[in-house]
Specification:
By secondary structure, the chain is an alpha/beta fold. It has ten helices and 16 strands.
Length: 353
């Protein structure tokens, strides 16, 4: 059984608070797999742009970066309480506007807001220094909770994966979380528990999070894998090479619809046709019970050049119109089970959480 104690975790941590508490440390995911570049950020705009430009990506990792980032930014805010609070809420709003789809971002910022306001309700004269301590403690707790959730959902999900070929889409590993991962964390836990897997990695166009990031993690962990183009998945299923698919999510609604990286819906439809189980793995913080269905999830539309340009090379006419939604929504009826740190649920069971 995979160790679920976060205190014993020795794997990759892509989002960290610097030891002296004065900077957010990020592994720059834009540079992978060619280079491993670590950034130290302390300015609000630098942190916000890092989220917007996918320096840090993956719903849980974005939440962790926002939580730590808001604390770090607070260190440069005014020392008078009224001015501090004005600056704090403005910074929180700037971070909230970076990515609209991933609900973990808003959960993390709301935790910070609640922690500060509850302290002020108890003691309106709380010093700015004390409010900063509360922001730091809340951020560190958010990161610990995310790592624990990933380890625990990995343990719950591992028995669901059969031996053989497992398809995954985008990156849902340690890079997308506080560590270990969601869907890729389930794969890691299953492999550590002795399940003989071979992971098929969708390259995940247009930004290639599968080929750049998931393949990098699997090769690093020496888990057997093969990289495939996104349009190869159906053929692999038809040939009997894939026994299950597992993906992450950026937001799951009350009825069990799940938003994830564009292309996930296609995988789910293919799985349904071929009778292959399709699992979604995500922490409970990704479940947004305020939304009834996936039709209410805001879908981010990203820059057209992410599709037109590959690396430094233009791969399409420079003036061709482009649609570039970053996510799609998989309806609940296509989802076999939703794997969380609290167990594995059918979409219909989510409202009971």
């Amino acid at each position: 059984m995979f160790d679920t104690n976060p205190e014993n975790y020795q794997g990759l941590r892509p989002v960290q608070l610097r030891v002296d508490g004065r900077a957010l440390i990020l592994l720059d995911q834009r540079a992978l797999p060619a280079d491993e570049v670590w950034l130290e950020l302390s300015a609000l705009e630098d942190i916000a742009v890092a989220i917007e430009t996918l320096t840090v990506r993956g719903a849980p990792a974005i939440g962790c970066a926002a939580a730590i980032g808001l604390y770090v930014v607070s260190l440069g805010m005014p020392e008078t309480r009224a001015d501090f609070l004005v600056a704090l809420w403005a910074a929180s709003e700037r971070l909230a506007n970076t990515r609209p789809t991933a609900v973990n971002l808003f959960v993390a910022l709301e935790q910070q807001r609640v922690a500060v306001t509850e302290q002020l309700d108890r003691d309106p004269d709380t010093s700015v220094a004390r409010l900063r301590e509360i922001l730091r403690a809340t951020a560190e707790q958010h990161v610990r909770a995310d790592l624990r959730a990933c380890l625990e959902l990995g343990a719950h999900g591992a028995p669901k994966l059969p031996p053989g070929g497992i398809l995954t889409h985008c990156n849902t590993g340690a890079l997308a979380t506080a560590g270990h991962g969601t869907a890729l964390g389930v794969i890691r836990s299953a492999w550590a528990s002795g399940t003989k897997l071979h992971v098929f990695v969708d390259e995940t166009r247009p930004l290639l999070q599968g080929s750049r990031l998931t393949a990098w993690e699997l090769v690093h962990d020496q888990i057997p894998c093969s990289l495939i183009c996104d349009n190869m998945a159906g053929a692999m299923m038809a040939r009997g090479e894939i026994q299950a698919a597992i993906v992450g999510a950026d937001r799951i609604t009350r009825n069990g619809d799940a938003a994830n990286k564009i292309g996930t819906y296609t995988v789910a439809v293919l799985c349904k046709h071929h009778g292959i189980p399709f699992y979604v793995a995500a922490p409970v913080t990704t479940i947004d019970l305020s939304l009834a269905t996936g039709a209410e999830i805001p879908i981010e539309e990203r820059d057209a050049d992410e599709v037109r340009v590959h690396g430094a090379a233009l791969r399409a006419p420079a003036n061709v119109p482009v649609r570039n939604p970053a996510f799609d929504v998989t309806p609940a009826e296509l989802i076999t089970g939703i794997i969380t740190e609290r167990g594995v649920f059918t979409p219909a069971e989510l409202a009971g959480l």
